[in-house]
Amino acid sequence: xxxYILDKILEYKNEKKYIDNIFEDVDNILSDEKYALSHLEVDxxxxxxxxxxxxxxxxxxxxxxxxxTKTPRELAKDLIVYIIETMxxxxxxxxxxxxxFYNDATEGTWAKLVDLFEKIKWILDATETLDADNELKYIVxxxxxxxxxxxxxxxLREIMVDFQDILASDDLNFVPEILYGExxxxxxxxxxxxxxxxxxELDMSLLN
Length: 208
Description:
Layout: E1 2-5, E2 8-11, H1 19-33, E3 36-42, E4 45-47, H2 51-58, E5 64-70, H3 72-102, H4 107-131, H5 136-139, H6 143-168, H7 175-199
Parallel strand pairs: 1-5
Antiparallel strand pairs: 1-2, 3-4, 3-5
C-alpha cells in the first residue's frame, strides 16, 4: 500500500505486523512537522475514527491512503465549533427530557439523561483543554468574554453536583426544573458567547 502524508509517500506491505509501524511513522512525521491528524481517505473512503481498527480489519485490501492534516490552531477552532453545535443540538433535547420527567420517566428517559450527563462532561473537558491551549490566543481575541464563558462552565459544574445530590435523594420533582430552568438556558448563553468569539476576526498582529 501507499500512504500519502504531507509531501511524503510511504510504502508498506499489506500485513498486520506492519500496522504498528505505519501509525508510528505517521505520528512521527506529524509531530516533526507540527501537524495533527484530521482524518484518512482509504481507497476513496473517508475514515474519521477508529483508524487502527479499520486497518486491522481491512489491511489485506488497502491500496492507497491519504492522510488529511490540520494545524493545532485549526483543531482548536474546530473544537469550539463542535462545542457550539453540540449545545445547539442538545437544548431542544433537554426541553423534551424535562417534559418527560414532568410526566412519567421511562427507562428511555433515564438513558437520555445519562447521555446528557456524558455530553456535559465532554463539553467541560473540551473547554478545559481549550483554556490551556496556546493556540487559543489566535482564535479568541476577547478574553473578557472567554472568561465569562469559563465562569459559565463553573456554574454548570456546580449545577451538576447539585443534580447528582438530588438524584441520590430520589427526589425527582426538581429534575425537570433543573433541566428546563437551569441547564437549557445556560447552554443557550454559553453557545451565544462562543458563537460571538469564533466569528470574530483573528488579530493578524498575533500571527507575526
